[in-house]
Amino acid sequence: MKIEKLTENKIRVIIPSSELGETNINVHNLMTKALETQDVFSDILKKAEKEVDFHTDGCKLLIEAFSSLEDVIVFTITKYLPDKEVKSKKLTVKRKCFDNSSKQIVCQFDTFDIFCEFCNNIKNLHKLNTIDFVKKASLYFWKNSYYLVLKNVNSKCENKNMFYASLSEFGKVISVSDHFESKLLEHGKAIIKKDAIFVGVRFFTED
Predict the structure, then answer these.
(1) Is 92:61 a contact under the CB 8 Å cutoff?
(2) What domains can be seen in the chain, in order of their start residue?
(3) pTM summary value
């Protein structure tokens, strides 16, 4: 298990498949055994407090769980300021799962700044080569949101789960038709037509 402190209020927990048996975590449990998973989260929070000084006493928590078809699970845990009337933690769990066989991915970002935060996160993932993972990436603006369209995705790329986890953290992956990009071209505005992630990492991230 690897715990990364993203901000003062957010951490990421990565559990590889080799450790799933030891932690008794799997995708089925996340959906059907709420009480057991809350016990698991309590253990994770105790470890996070010890390793990265992430204290959650009295806080409300949002826990997003991303899982690949290979049973690699990534938790993003966000804490909110304590409510004076809240005496115990409230856990809200959301599960996100990607179809690794898909050759096209569309991710929606609420703002351009959030897209830039995504690019900055990708920049810091030194083991991830996005050029090998996706051959075409375009960014569009439509109806007050930004859409990153990824085509010709290499589902066999090493460390692809790190990329999926980053998408899950900063954006919302949506299910669309094969003609969705044509709709964006017709009704929206192309912000970065080619190599959107490369351009974002190079020109819109922190040094």
Answers:
(1) yes
(2) 2-97 (no CATH), 104-203 (3.30.70.1950)
(3) 0.57
